[in-house]
Amino acid sequence: MTAAEELAQTGECNADEIYSVAHELESHVTSFAARVEQRRQRLDLAVLFYSQEKEVSPRYLVYNSCSPIGNESGIRNWRADVQ
């Protein structure tokens, strides 16, 4: 807005047009910033949800409680749960 005021005060351009374009640009920037903030909040919520879901998911608990080698009952339980 400062640059628009300086340009409008020079008298070389139509001041009303300069202010109109500056306000339109400011509106676009404000809208963009709001959308970015909304996306950031959604990402934060998604990270929170999926990190907690991972902690309480039965599939995750069964899979992580069995040893990758030699724990046949845990692997059978995991396979049954996945199917």
Architecture overview:
Helix 1 runs antiparallel to helix 2 and helix 3 packs antiparallel against helix 4. The chain contains 4 helices and no strands. It starts with a helix and ends with a helix. With 83 residues, the protein is an all-alpha fold. Helices cover 84% and strands 0% of the residues.
User: Count of DSSP E strands?
Assistant: 0
Helix content: over 70%
What profile does the largest beta sheet have?
A: none
Query: What integer is the average pLDDT?
Result: 76
- List segments where confidence is low: pLDDT < 50 over at least 5 consecutive residues: 67-71
Rounded Rg: 29 Å
Shape: rod-shaped
Distance between the termini: 61 Å
Q: Write the element-wise H/E pattern from the N-terminal end onward.
A: HHHH
Q: How many separate domains?
A: 1
Write the layout of secondary structure elements.
Layout: H1 2-10, H2 15-56, H3 58-65, H4 72-82
Helix pairs in contact: 1-2, 3-4
Which key terms come to mind for this protein?
mainly alpha; 84% helix; 83 residues; 4 helices
Give a short overview.
By secondary structure, the chain is mainly α. Helices cover 84% and strands 0% of the residues.
